[in-house]
Amino acid sequence: MPKAKGKSRRHKYSYNLNRKRLYRSARRRAAPRIACSHIRHAWDPSKSVAQNLAEMGLSEDPNKALPIPKKLGVEAESSGQQSGKKIVRKPYVVNEMEYEASLPEKKSNTLSRDLIDYVRYMIQNHGENYKEMARDEKNYYQDTPKQIKRKINVYKNFYPEEYKEFMASLKPEKMDVQ
């Protein structure tokens, strides 16, 4: 099959093109990337970053917002400067952010179904004997006894109720066997 026309030709570098200027102008036109949705909705693109943040009651520079006093005399001077505060026109942004920060975090840690099945199989067949577990044919990844013990402990920590129910369901089976 023949090659596409023009692919074998050498590409020439254009020395006359100012790539820095092109890159800078593209960056200047782009709007700032804002992660918080509350700030994004209250943002006014016609104003500067400092003006937008001041209207929301936020600070552009945290070092200026909360300066670290070096001497006791500096504290007295800075308290006199606080009287000329800027007016906050959009206080709802800070209030919404504080409310969102006060909400409890959801626990999003989960284990894969394969790992759960693996751990349950090992406990069901070998109990607490980790050396036997390491020699089991289902130990595809050739985990050492310590690695298997660690995986079982992770399962215990992530799903404590499920682990207790599983262990309770195993006890009657052991009694029937004996």
Would you kindly provide a written description of the structure presented here, covering whatever features stand out?
Belongs to the NOP16 family. This is Nucleolar protein 16. InterPro entries: Ribosome_biogenesis_Nop16. Residues 1-21 are annotated as: Disordered. 58% of the residues lie in helices and 0% in strands. The chain is mostly helical. Among the domains are: 20-65 and 86-102, no CATH class; 113-170. The longest helix has 18 residues, at 160-177. It is flat, with a radius of gyration of 32 Å. The N and C termini lie far apart (73 Å). The mean pLDDT is 82.
List the main descriptive attributes of the protein structure presented here.
178 residues
How far apart, in Å, are the first and last alpha carbons?
A: 73 Å
**Biggest β-sheet description:** none
**DSSP strand count:** 0
Shape: flat
Radius of gyration: 32 Å
The low-confidence parts are: none
How much helix is in the residues? 55-70%
Count of separate DSSP helical elements: 10
* N-to-C order of helices and strands: HHHHHHHHHH
pLDDT averaged over residues: 82
Beta-strand residue fraction:
under 5%
Class from helix and strand fractions: mainly alpha
